[in-house]
Fold these 4 entries.
Entry 1:
Amino acid sequence: MTREQAKREILTRSREYFKPDGMKKGYVCPICGSGSGPKGTGITTKDGEHFTCWAGCFSNADLFQIIGQERGLQNFPDQLKAAADFFRIDLEGADAKPQKAHAPAERKPTKPAPEPETDFTEFYKRAAADIEKTSYHRGITLDTLRRFNIGFVEAWKHPKAPGAAPTSPRLIIPTGRSSYLARDTREPERIPERERAYQKSKVGAVHLFNAAALHDPGTKWPVFITEGELDALSIMDAAPGAAAVALGSTSNTRKLLDLLREKPPLYPLILCLDNDEAGQKATAELRKELGRLSIPFTVANIYGDEKDANAALMKDRDALTYAAIMALEEARRAGEEAAEAERAELRKEAVVYSLQGFLDEISRSRNAAAIPTGFPSIDKILDGGLFAGLYVLGAISSLGKTTFALQIADQIAASGRDVLIFSLEMARSELIAKSISRLTLERTLAAGGNTRNAKTTRGILTGTRYAAYSNEERQTIQDAITAYSEYAGNIFITEGLGNVTVDTIREKVQRHITITGRAPVVLIDYLQIIATPDTRLTDKQATDKNVLELKRMSRDFCLPVIGISSFNRQSYTDPVNMAAFKESGAIEYSSDVLIGLQYDGMDYQDGEAETARNKRIRELMRAAADKGAKGQAQQIQVKILKNRNGAKGDALLDFYPMFNLFADPEGSR
């Protein structure tokens, strides 16, 4: 549902958020707890979308403003999300706010400024001193009532109620320095009908009762979660040493969850909400969310057939005591089991427990030689070739990074190793043609033949040209195809068209290992166009995520992964460096080996002025392009910019761009 659709849906259903008052004339205020009545208290609405609390909490406010005031949410997106959560409206696919140019500005009611909190500390002290003036203790001992500063006021009325509002005797249960519950102590039948809607009135912002127990080092035992404040007091009274926290209402489950997200509890929780439909619904929500937060908990019915803990205490204190102790013991065992599982997971990360695995890995590595790239000068720098890890190869456009990586893949395949190529830009036929083109020049040079017999990629792919080829040219192509076929069985190519994700790559690698029993070398061309399933990510975020997953794959399957990367345009005339790799800081930090290609001579020279350098680089690149166009070799510098477990260095290769060949010349560094 879009943002605007959700907003309209919520405003239309606003009445459902409020509880009707006992007289069915208005609604109970979620902030001050009053309901409408003959004296004009409570909240009313004329249009179903704007509400006024006649006790003074708000005037002509919509539901978003009321929720904001009730929950302390200052901005509209937070208010909208809170309302959507209440009505179970999915905002996952909500669109952005519409531009003002497309719709007239909406006139919103004036939002009242939040009122400063009132400190009721002195009020609590006076009320607590009078606790013995009432016999309304609901089976809870005076020691427990005094421990939690429970008090009594003989003639109480809501601080925001009109001066003429009636008073009533109330049990005062503090839920915070600036909030409390005032519970009418009269027998229900003695309460006038018009006042029955206010038997339980909350003053101040809604707080959880005894929430400090969740993080108090002195608690030591699992913590009961109840619905009502008297229920929490009843459990702690029946089972001395136990701790209990009360929601105050099932509508406050989110407040508990928000608190636990911010700071997980020190102890397992025991869910003991009321034995009614609302309690069961809230318990289900808590079970689901606590599971997501990985917070240990159990669910216990310690009330028997009674509705709540206080009713159970009033009926049979001993039975409640026994049930609470059993629930505590069960939760304690469950908490210990969860803690032991966490300790076991932690032990797996301790070095002493992985030391033998480390030694075994070294022993296995004696037989796991490096995989040569086929370029001796490069293998010398890389301690023999490729090892398990993430290799990233970068260069400016048209300098031959795909050709270079493909030649390495062919040379590895020719040695008998499997290679999986994920080509996200070029077709399978182009890659095959590039390999055959390279082999035509390789074989011609090796035999000392005429290089005119070597063919370009286009010369291989265009069938109409074959009629004009000489027998010697056709034979050169056929010999190259035969040579390619000898190791083509070790090359596996997956074409992509915006649909290959890192998950696709991982699944294909896993499947290959499962079927063949052999870990392949993986080549990806190229990193920046791997698809991402999350379209909300920026290009940089997507590349970062993909690079990290490829690094994880190389580690999990113990194999080399070669990823080709583009360069940012600012680096086209600069010496190759780590900052040139496009779109991602993860490439620089997560790769095990970072390789850059550049024309020989691109490095800075001592004392060279910028103008002179720019002129030299232009001439160098022009000369390289001329050589390439004539089928001659360009001199390419291969720089190992980063080698996590080895040395850095550089090597020179001859590159024949027309025929897709890199060659290791004599005397290369």
Note: The CA atoms of residues 383 and 646 lie 7 Å apart.
Entry 2:
Amino acid sequence: MAKKPSKRPISSPMPARSPKKSGSNTGVIMLILLAVVIGGGGYYYYDMQEKERIRLEKQEAARKKAAEERARKAKEEAERIAREKAEQERLKAEEEARRKAAEEEARRKAEEEARRRAEEEEERRRREQEQQQEEPDEEPEEPEQPTEPEKGDYDDSVDLTGTLSRADREKFAAMLENLLKEGNYEEFSKAFTQKTVEAVRGLLGGSGEKLNYHAYRSSRNLMNSVELCTLINYAGEAGLRAITHPEDAGAIKGASPEKGREFIRWLVNDRSRPLHAFIQNYMLQEGRPQNTAWSIQTLYKIWLATPERDRAKYLNLAIACSLVNPGTAQSNGSMRNPKTPALTMPEVFEYFRLRDSKRKLLTDVKKMSVARLLMVVDARLNRSEFEWVEKNLSYDRASWASKAYNSIKYLMERAKNGKDPYTHYTFEEIRKEGGVCRDQAYYAANTAKVMGIPAVYAVGDGDRGPHAWVVSNDSETQWNQINSYGYKTGTYSNPCSGRRHHESMLLLQTKKEKPGQYDGAADCIALSRFLLSNGNVDEARGAARYVTGAFPTLTAAWSNLVEMLGQKGGSEVEMGEWRRIHNSLGVQSRKNTELTDIAAEVEDKYIISGRSATGKKQAMDRSLRQLRRNGGEERSDLVVEAIGRQAAMLAENSDIRGLYSLYRKELKGYTKRGDVFGQLLSQCISNYEKAGATPRDWAQLAKEAEKLFEKEIRSGGGDYFKLTKEVSIQKQVAGLYANAGNAKKATKIAADADERLKNAKKSE
């Protein structure tokens, strides 16, 4: 075994190292240390450079961000200043419009006050003259009879302007007698018109644009002439000769040529001024010229049957009965197979006159305006229905419509399956069998009318589908909705013009009626139409302008002005005037939403007609925003019409993309209003068809409509009426898929809609 090396003794000294070897190790170490120092310094230098670079980048980024922030704030500040400036300008324009309206109102009141004082002074002078002419201690002298004008000699020496003297009245009376004797009404109108027009020009000023209404109102002969010529122009010679020169005097009970002429004398000369009141209300109610002959003959029949003492007392009632549209007045109303026909308008007048004289009505028809009486006398009922109400119903005025409506039980079977339990559709049958909303509203409105309470049958659409309710004049100052579901879409029909009005026109009336509050408007509308019928367009415009200044919220005033300005034959109407009219209508529409319709007509016909498609769209967008600000929720019907005008322009240009963009936005905005959503979708479908949409276009629209329906409109269907509205929209969506060529999807959606409605009918 090899021998292990022996260990060195502890005490033995360490062996000495070679000097050469020790120096070599130290150099290596130094090199390493040097490398570490150099590397560390390089790293430190690199690290410092990197940190500096990062610091500079952050500083640059912060600078840029600060600059962007300053630019953003500057832009926002500029936009804010621009908005504030625009708002200030808008407020300034509105304030200016209000100021002008206030000034105009003050001017009108001043004119009315001056007119009243002048009339009182005129009446005082007339009485003094009559007292001076009276000689109680002596036999009165027989007044000199005026020379009767020869046939056709109507205008010589007849003074038309100024306060009437006795000689003036006698000349006009002699002229009227000649007219009644000869019956040549058209010849009279032609011969006397020029003199009348010349007299009117003197009241319009040099420019022909500013009417001196006080002077016109004070010129009784002139006003009589205008009204008589207007009656002749509207009723025609044949219509008037049927009264004064009837071929068969027995055609009207109690009629004769002598009675007919006495009626015309009464119409023109009576102190109650019947012709004046008739023409005024014909204008305010926008009566149709072609109905005038029927109306004046109806008034004649009423006059014949009325005691002389009551003719002036019940004049408004008589005029209201004569103004009911003949299409309505000559119908039997809603009754079926009546045993006796509905009362004629003279019989309706007689019924209310006698009931009022016995104080059996809940209102005083002697003090009521023609406008409100029209909503009483248009009840188309036979005598047994009138008598049934007298015997069976007894409510007070304030609660009549409400109690009558709610007294009729709701007949769900009629709503679901169309059950018709009526034979004659009398009040008694309705109360016994019950009915749906339209039967309840018919019963409530017409029984109220029988008692002299003005009421209208209103209809509208909403989330629960079509509905009928009543708007009733519960007091002298207040109209109220009865059982409207909270709908604000109700419309009713004007018994005279047949025009549809929004119920807000009644609900906004909160003041007691003032007799003659619109006399000035009616007089000047009649004057403008007389001038227009004789080709004096500029003069007609002057009279029409006066009306809108004095009565800035009256629908008939603005409608008349726009018609006058749109007539050919006069001087050219400047664009500035059309813009002023459009702006004024926008301001006044806050008080009368019907003016929005007229504003839209002005914009379409006279302001944007020559603009580019882009310009038209911008103008329509502004109008739509203004409409929404001025009560778009209450007048959604006007919003839908405004959208329709934009869509019609896009459809005319076959702009499907524009149509889709417009309706996509509007449909999204009305998902909470099923009625509006459905109307817009129907409107969209119509415009897509006009624009020539392709199946691909229809498919895009169908997907969007289905998405909105499923997400926002479709419900669990607990309310049968709400579900019915949903189903109608669902079927519209099915129709969109059918137009897109996707018959399978269309059939599936329609089947689902039918199944939902079927289940709802079972569950109720």
Note: The CA atoms of residues 614 and 620 lie 10 Å apart.
Entry 3:
Amino acid sequence: MTNRIVVLLCAICLWAQHIVAAEVSTGNWNIIPLPSQVNEIKAKGFTLKDGCTVRVSETGNESENMHRNARMLINGVANAVNIAMTESSKKRRGEVVLSLDYTLADEQYSIKADSRSVIVKGGSAKAVFYGIQTIIKALPANCQNIKKVTLPAVQISDSPRFAYRGFMIDESRHFFGVDYIKCVIDMLALHNINYFHWHLTDDQGWRIEIKKYPKLTQVGSWRKESITEAGGNNFDGIPVSGFYTQDEARQVIAYAAERYITVIPEIDLPGHMLAALASYPELGCTGGPYEVATRYGVFDDVLCGGNNATMQFAKDVLQEIMDIFPSEYIHIGGDECPKKIWKNCPKCQAKITELGLKDIEGHSKEDQLQTWMMAELEKVINSRGKKMMGWDEILEGCPSKTATVLAWTSVDASVRAARQGHNTIVCPISNFYFSNRHWNKLTGIESLKHVYELDPVSDKLQSPDETSLIIGAEGCIWTEWVKDGEKLEWELLPRLAALCEVQWTRRDLRNLDSFVERLRHMQHIYAARGYRYRKDLLPD
């Protein structure tokens, strides 16, 4: 009997030790993206537990945003470690304080953690939000039985390297819907992304309601089937459809804005317009008939550059888009527009003659016609106090210096754009296209390295005037071969973590080995949130 009691007591002790170990954990400030300065202090850290409070102080004119930040922190902690915090207006020990400090830059924040409190200060409410994200990512992941978390005493000062930190999702090829796009926005927020580039129209589908042109969604949002493999000739026979009403688009915009993400719409023109041409054949050079594309690639049929009605259509669409989207940027494509039909179109050639356009070195008169079209549309965009964006093919003409260029065709395209005086966003297909089928064949660390080790500011840019025009970087997912969220997340994660550190962290602080070690915890966060990330890069 005595031996049984001893064994039982030992078992109880081991069980108790296990419970204690499970209920108490320690956070870690080695997060992604790596902050600019992290100085851990040899002192007792902050104990986060049920009953801790969040106090909003010094809200300035951002009271609504700051109190929403407080709720974001409370919900984020509850979801990560199941600790219940509350918001309080009273100062007390064991609190997290959120406040504004206008001596800091717009996106700069600081965190001071000690045994009494955690104080987050930011130059704006969005900067405070990034501080909150740092705290949430410093918590243990997927540990719902934790009762207390110790956050090591620390002083953090942090701000992003680039003002523009973007990611693009194409929904023209496959449609995901409001609920899932909100999920994607949450993923972007976790990685400090501040611009969501939403590719809404292309040859294979028109995904946004335009009330003046209802056929764009009645006809253009539906295609009868999709090709099953690149270079093949087999089709799946499965219709693809779907579009966002203007009210649904506003829901997405509002959801993103609460996470300090600006949604940039893209209406891709004058090429990649078969969905629009199928809806309104009179907008093309030949009058059709046209069909919403079931194949992928570049098509000769584009908007008619010499048709006044076509220009009015484009202006009308952009006006409605700007009514919906408050974004400072409006993206109008400009990529992959063959000029073959324009060369034989009487209206296009008449317009070229009317405008007095001539072939110049490196640019045909048809290239100049596209440049004229883009310039006319830019006037409409600028009249609303907004800025035009386009892919780097717009450099084939002579666009205005006020156009912002997304350099996708190569790293050299970003060099060329900056040297020509354009604000430039670096998004080369070679490194930042996560749907690139060739690069998706890379496995393990090489797949991450391919993203992580490309610096957006090319060494070919030497002068401060040129380097200052590289305003950021963007990753892209095109959905020709991405039919569902599982495949999209596989392409997105964890390479988005590598991209976000390129976008946020200073070049001299980035280190691939350090990043890989910190990525293990990020994968645990993905798992806890139910994200279906690619698992061949690192063991869990």
Note: The first strand starts at residue 24 and ends at 26.
Entry 4:
Amino acid sequence: MKHIILLFSFFLLYTPILNASEIKKVATTYSISFENAVHHEAEIKAQFSNLKGDEATFRMSRTSPGRYALHEFVKNVYNVKVTDSKGNVLNTTRPDPYSWNVKGHDGIIHVSYTLFANRGGGTYAQIDETHAHLNIPATFMYVPSLANKEIEVTFKPRDDLNWKIATQLKHLENNTYYAKDLQYFMDSPTEISNHSVRSFNVGKQTINFVLHHNGTEGEFDEYFEKVKKIVLQQEKVFGELPSYDYDNYYFLACYIPNASGDGMEHRNSTILTSTRSLANGGLERNIGTVSHEFFHCWNVERIRPQSLEPFDFEEANMSGELWFAEGFTSYYTSLMMCRAGLLSQEDYVKRLQGTFNYVWNSPGRRFFNPIEMSYQAPFVDAARSVDPVNRTNTFISYYSYGSALGLALDLSLREKGLTLDDYMKLVWKKNGKKEKPYTIERLHSLLNDYAGDDFGNHFFQNYIYKSDMPDMNRLFESVGVILSQNTDKASFGVAVVNGTINQNTSIGTAAYKAGLEKGDKIINVNSTPITKDTTFKEIIATYKPDDILSITYERFGVTKETSITLQEDPTYSIEINPSQTGTTEIVKRRNLWLNPK
């Protein structure tokens, strides 16, 4: 395998040049400049041509590929001006908050506007004197009737800031890039900054890591070695990399103080943002997002739910398959780090505790199964609302729920001498590689094909169409892992911070049964006052399950009393069984699960 370190010829490697014969007539062209970057503004000019009829509509997207909620990007657009091809000013009307209608054009309209952008993550845009971080739907207006036509965009980087362009878009010449249609354009985030690049080849394709950070080249070299290990372990799950458009894949990473922690997958690239520099924890803590997002270039980008095809830029995108698309990807996130040697087996197994306890102990499973939890994405995927919700009791993240199910399915298959890796490979070959979108029924039938009807039907009927949970004690034991609880430890059932209950109490817990709720201020427990020196947690630790306590609390300015019966702590501990070592069959099975491939 040949490794390449990019130090120059940046544009030549970044995107191969289109031959003249490849270029069709484009209907949309953009230019974007950043003279007022210090105030987070970009100036954008668009030409929309080949317009039919007397009236044309242009608009901003309300959604962004990889997100499922509405984000209303139009709120950051102003100073909109519209002319025809001769420069005549055209009047516009507003049929809704997201669109402009134009009459009397001559087949071409020119639109200019100012964009304010100051959130550097996987959904929005950020413009300042450190970079122009552009998620395309948050940046560019478009004409829906031209969605299937070609697009060109010219970026005008700040030469005085040594900015360079990084994107999965096809490079034409100089600073001009090309997309075959609106779907591809919207799915092509672009980072313009004074960044560094590392690359390596896998077969005939190139993996590029673009890093905008304040660290050293030596830190980047060390980090890139970790990235390569992740890429190669994930390739082994599916047996091959996807066929990337133009034979290149781009990690677009911004590890800078003004970024927002995030990761977002795209067809041939991913956005990675963190406020953690490589020198301050990022070498270890940022790599998990790399693992998660790269796995998406198979699972969700090409192993694609039918419910997300085509992606809708005007409405929320609802999918019942996110437990698989996001959740199974989450399961593989840390597993790939373990196989790559970036986590020990012991650390990996301990990391399972957080997700396991969240899913197994959540009351949400009594209300929704994994499919229905996935339907909640438009309300939780970075969505905003001002009214309180009861998600403590009704919702389990499809990331976590699906991750727990992925773990359960993997260990269940391994009991039969099979693996989740080979099931994922089958889904890849039958649907993903052919880019044939799947349904839940298709996932079910492929599991039946792989593991047998009895196994596949049992898994889907009990754990996907319903919200039961498998016997995890048995499954963990099969790989030498201990699942345990401390039944002598008492549980109040909700966190109390500075004497105040800080979230909705969970159904069935001691606090819930006692009628306590978010916002209640605990004054004393069995006449012991809560003070700075005597915390609530310390007081509860002196009691045992089934102890009955008298609680005095304040709600809405009124002092009240209640009694509470403490319960057993429901928290599970997960660890490798230290008594099983050497070459036992159980240890061999665990090594097949967690060791490098």
Note: The first helix runs from residue 10 to 14.
